[in-house]
Design a protein that fits this description.
The protein is an alpha+beta fold. The protein contains 31 helices and 23 strands. Strands 2, 4, 5, 7, 10, 12 and 13 form a seven-stranded antiparallel beta sheet that branches. The protein has a five-stranded antiparallel beta sheet with strand order 3-6-11-8-9, with no helix packed on it. A hairpin with a 5-residue loop joins β21 and β22. α19 crosses α20. The chain is flat. It starts with a helix and ends in an 8-residue tail after the last strand.
Length: 816
């Protein structure tokens, strides 16, 4: 956000804009005079937070104490700058008005922190030095990048990391639904109707964006009422009667005679049986026959399409009869009462034997015959009920005992009985007015499910870390065991802690056993939610929910879409659960398809709707060969090399280009014949603009490499009348050709990919955006996993970071 505001300042022509510029991305290394718009657009603006002097030393009235990083600055960084940067970025040349050679202390670098972060990013991306300069050794680049991150974010030589401050977090829509299901064993049926959650830093787990609008509060109230009714059924046998006159008549013109509906010509009545609980009920039908012919009238009853009763009705109008049968009802079922043996003989000598009909009075159900089985709430929390002779205080004591046990789990922390006193009094009041214990519990649960203690994740109970243990850096507190258990559970299962994790936290087994618990949760079935929520948002799969390609270009898209998402999630889940290398996500030689997706990819021999592992088609393995990713980064009528290139830089490398300048976000007609040019040619014209060149030099070659796939991920060799060209040259001179070439380039930047993935995991897990203290901690985590970079170890490794186990306390820092 601060960099974006600086860009806005530059584009507005402020004083900083007049000084900012750089030498990068010019074909052949040709030098250009800096312009404010170009500096803002390429935002490699090594001075993202300051002007030319930002990287130079600032005067100080008192000499600071020696910084241990200063020695490495002299030994590693300054020689690197002198060899690879000084020719352009010394005080004489000032290429782009950027000077690097005057930074002589670590404090000089920290004074322009955002600028030096940009320096590290550009070096790691291979964008600097320019293409016409000799490339520095990879180990030298890593050493400089590591030093910059340690200097700016803390590290083994710069003191402990700042864990950052997490805004009080509301449960997002998915977390709410999973929490209710795991806590009470009932679905949160209204959760899909909640307003969509906002997204921050790519995820809907970030506290800063999880507001509580009035509409959502209304939905919480309605949802809590429904959930409580299912969790604590107020059971009492009930009778439900449907009068025949109120039922729909089908296939008959039967009339009404003294309250009975008369059916003839094999007609029937139709209605719905609504009962409070599923179970076995007694169903009754009162009827008589207008008899004629050799047999009595016959009736058939069907419930939910199945026949439950067939019987003769010999009774006549002077003594109707009631037929009875036991049936199982689901809660809202269709019932039909049919007349099945019509008889009509108009010429019979006896007028009473000329016409047989059936007359129906009513249909009713009573029950359930047996009480419904106890719910999860009743089994787990209602260990006793008030006695028949108990007075108000005794009833309140029982309610308090039940609700305190529930609150411990629902509010995810230890509670005292007095904390649920108001809810217990509510139960007492309901019973005092003649209501049942269950009805009182329903109202108490509604209140508790709408409590901030349930809807929000509080982190207030941790142990302050003594200053002697942290002589440098901000004041921090270690999360309390129950807070740590909650963080871990919502990270890996998107729900509240399960019994083993809760018990371990209560016994003081956290944080010592945190990693063991993390691996246990990842091995369990609830970790599927982590796959869906994290991978779905990290990879942008949610875009497919609203992506509507031109039906003429993508027939059958709606039926295909679920398989596309399932394939990508299956790959991520397989690599995670097998603890394979995270790099396997880039170029796995296998994939997961069903019959429909196999046809989309041109694979033979796959039948049925089940996903199964198969060898990836040639040139398609890994995430970038998945139709889900390719479609999510396309436009409705064509592919988009720019979107695809930007997605790779942003999602896979955590190195996004800045947003385009106003008016530069589309391909305008560059000359009268632009519409006749290929997409590649139009992008080359667009890239010829100085203000667009630098960013497109990074995005377009990546996107061109994926042009072998159309807008929904089918392989192709032609784009309309033009052959597809998948070649491109990235900054630094690296040439790629098609997906295999792009995969090889990404493999070569494997550490950067894993580092980007680690940052995404940390944001998702902790619920805040990145802070300076994260950089060095993430570097240590990633370097400790080299060279295998196993995905399961990476996911678990996030839980070892100070940012996961601690929180900053005291006054908010600047930027909080």
């Amino acid at each position: 956000g601060r960099t974006a505001r600086r860009v806005e300042s530059v584009t507005a022509g402020g004083p900083e804009g007049r000084e900012v510029g750089m030498r990068h991305g010019d074909p052949g290394g040709a030098r250009r005079s800096p312009s404010p718009t170009r500096a803002a657009a390429c935002a490699l603006a090594l001075v993202g937070a300051g002007a030319a002097g930002a990287l130079a030393p600032r005067p100080s009235s008192a000499a600071p104490p020696p910084d241990p990083l200063d020695a490495r600055l002299e030994e590693v960084v300054r020689p690197f700058v002198a060899k690879h940067c000084a020719e352009c970025h010394d005080p004489a040349e000032r290429a782009g008005e950027v000077v690097l050679t005057l930074a002589r202390t670590t404090d000089d670098v920290r004074a322009a922190g955002e600028a030096w972060r940009a320096v590290a990013a550009r070096l790691e991306a291979g964008d600097m030095p320019p293409d016409d300069r000799p490339r520095p050794a990879a180990e030298d680049v890593r050493a400089v990048v590591r030093w910059v991150r340690e200097a700016l974010g803390g590290g083994p030589t710069a003191g402990p990391a700042d864990p950052g401050r997490v805004t009080l977090r509301r449960l997002n829509r998915a977390e709410y639904a999973h929490t209710v299901e795991d806590l009470l064993g009932v679905p949160a049926r209204l959760a899909p109707t909640f307003p969509p959650d906002d997204v921050g830093y790519g995820f809907d787990t970030v506290g800063d964006v999880l507001a509580l609008p009035p509409l959502l509060l209304e939905r919480y109230l309605a949802s809590a009422e429904q959930i409580a009714a299912e969790a604590v059924p107020d059971f009492a046998p009930a009778r439900h009667r449907l009068e025949a006159e109120g039922l729909e008549r089908v296939g008959t013109e039967g009339g009404v005679q003294e309250g009975f509906v008369v059916l003839w010509s094999n007609g029937h009545l139709r209605g719905r049986l609504q009962v409070p609980w599923p179970g076995d009920y007694t169903l009754r039908v009162r009827a008589y026959g207008q008899q004629a012919g050799p047999e009595p009238a016959r009736l058939v009853v069907r419930v939910a399409g199945r026949q439950v009763l067939e019987a003769e009705v010999p009774a006549t109008d002077d003594a109707p009869q009631t037929l009875e049968v036991r049936v199982r009802l689901a809660g809202d079922d269709e019932v039909r009462v049919a007349f099945t043996n019509d008889f009509y003989a108009p010429n019979a000598p006896d007028p009473a034997q000329r016409d047989r009909n059936l007359a129906v009075d009513w249909v009713e159900v009573e029950g359930p015959v047996e009480p419904p089985p106890p719910t999860l709430f009743q089994t787990r929390y209602v260990t006793r009920r008030p006695g028949a002779k108990d007075k108000g205080p005794q009833r309140r004591a029982v309610a308090r005992e039940v609700l305190a046990a529930f609150a411990r789990d629902a509010w995810r922390r230890p509670v005292e009985p007095k904390e649920v006193e108001r809810q217990a009094r509510l139960v007492e009041q309901v019973m005092g007015e003649g209501g049942s214990f269950e009805r009182g519990l329903q109202l108490a649960l509604q209140a508790m499910l709408c409590s901030p203690h349930f809807l929000f994740r509080f982190e207030l109970d941790g142990r302050p870390v003594p200053a002697a243990e942290r002589p440098q850096g901000p004041a921090v507190a270690a999360l309390a065991p129950h807070e740590l258990a909650t963080r871990l559970s919502y990270y890996l299962t998107c729900s509240l802690p399960d019994d083993p994790l809760r018990a371990r936290a209560a016994a003081g087994g956290l944080p010592a056993g945190l990693e063991e618990e993390a691996r246990r949760l990842l091995a369990g079935p609830r970790a599927r939610r982590f796959v869906e929520q994290f991978a779905g948002q990290w990879l942008g799969l949610r875009r497919l929910d609203t992506f509507s390609p031109d039906p003429a270009l993508a027939p059958g898209w709606e039926a295909l879409r679920p398989a596309l998402v399932a394939e990508t999630l299956a790959l991520f889940e397989h690599v995670l659960r097998s603890n394979a290398s995270a790099l396997e996500l880039l170029d796995a030689p296998y994939t997961f398809v069903d019959e429909r997706l196999a046809r989309h990819y041109g694979l033979e021999g796959v039948r049925g709707p089940e996903l199964r592992r198969v060898s990836a088609p040639p040139g398609r393995g890994g995430l970038l060969g998945h139709a889900s990713v390719l479609a999510a980064t396309s436009s409705p009528t064509r592919t988009s090399p720019v979107k695809r290139g930007r997605w790779v830089l942003e999602a896979l490398l955590d190195d996004p280009p800045p947003p385009p300048l106003p008016g530069m976000d589309s391909l305008a007609d560059e000359g009268g014949d632009a519409a006749d040019k290929t997409l590649r040619a139009r992008l080359e014209l667009h890239r010829s603009r100085p203000e667009c060149a630098s960013c497109h030099a990074r995005m377009d070659p990546i996107g061109f490499a994926l042009e072998g796939f159309d807008l929904v991920g089918r392989g192709r060799t032609r784009d309309g009348e033009h052959p597809v060209d998948t070649r491109g040259t990235l900054p630094g001179g690296h040439e790629v050709d098609g997906l295999p070439g792009l995969q090889a380039w990404l493999r070569g930047r494997g550490r950067a990919f894993v580092r980007a993935l680690a940052r995404q995991l940390l944001v998702f897990a902790v619920g805040r955006g990145p802070v300076a203290g994260d950089d060095a901690a993430l570097d240590r985590l990633v370097d400790g996993l080299a060279p295998e970079y196993r995905l399961g170890d990476l996911v678990v490794g996030v839980t070892r970071l100070e940012a996961f186990r601690e929180r900053r306390v005291g006054k908010p820092a600047k930027g909080d």
